Amino acid sequence: TSQDITERKRADVLLQRAMDASDSFYVLCDAQDRIIAWDRKFQDRFATVGVLVEPGASYYDTLEKFATRVGVGSSTEDAQAFIAKRRNRRKDPAHGMIYESGDGEWTEVFDVVLDDGTIFTTSKLVTERIRLESEIRENAAYITAFMNHSSDDVAINDINGKYVFVRPQFTERYGKRLD
User: Fold this and answer.
1) Which SS3 state, helix, strand or coil, does residue 157 take?
2) First to last CA, the chain
3) Mean pLDDT value across residues 116-128
4) What does the alpha-carbon distance between residue 175 and residue 153 come to, in Å, rounded to a whole number?
């Protein structure tokens, strides 16, 4: 009925708005890896390097164009190797995949294979998270080295004032222990 069609169109519009409001980008492919639907952010990400996303196009052909134009992974990894990794991940999507593209952006990708073989892919730019994780690792190494070689009375409190690290000298002098 026309009311059913109107409700379906309304649902499609609401779904598109919800996807566009998210910080992730999405693509839906059929069991033969042909692109069925995508959101604006997915289209915009590919458009930055001149790749047009089209309905019915092969997901892998579209992804290979993107990978070839923007560059992916380390300097020794070519687009074909990247596409092979993506194919394997989409066949067995138990884990996400994180990759760096040639423009310096890091992307995390998750695939969900539905019971009919349709694949729903979500991607998110995680460049800032990768940068922060790297800084945390560097700072942790510095702090660990300092703590292991310092003869000072040292203690570290978390944001709530709880002791999360106490050197033995600090405990001896002030009687404070880990909370």
Assistant:
1) strand
2) 66
3) 92
4) 11
Structure tokens belonging to residue 179: 């909370």
DSSP 8-class letter at 51: P
**DSSP per position, 80-110:** HHHHHHHHHHHHSTTS-EEEEBTTS-EEEEE
141 or 66, greater pLDDT = 66
Has residue 108 got a pLDDT over 70?
Answer: yes
pLDDT in tens, 71-82: 886 544 577 888
- C-alpha triplet 121, 26, 96: angle, nearest 5°: 35
DSSP state of 58: B
Residue 136: both structure tokens together: 């945390």
- Predicted TM-score (pTM) of the model is 0.69
